[in-house]
Prior knowledge:
The chain contains four helices and three strands. It is an alpha+beta fold. The radius of gyration is 18 Å and the shape is elongated.
Amino acid sequence: xxxxxxxxxxxxxxxxxQTDIIEMHPGVIRLRGYEIQDLIxxxxxxxxxxxxxxxxxxxxxxxxxxxxxxxxAVDHG
Length: 77
């Protein structure tokens, strides 16, 4: 019996876990198509959350509003 064309358990698992949100391979991490190194230090945490949820980077007002909502949702006590 030949193993040609058969996928390993790991390959099948990787396909099962694929999403449109993140692409990850050795040396490559992309969120919604954006290279992670292009986002780090340039895009705020709320903007990254928006990107992951909506699939596009938010405007400044949208990111600020989401940041305010996230902050208000935290128990500060």
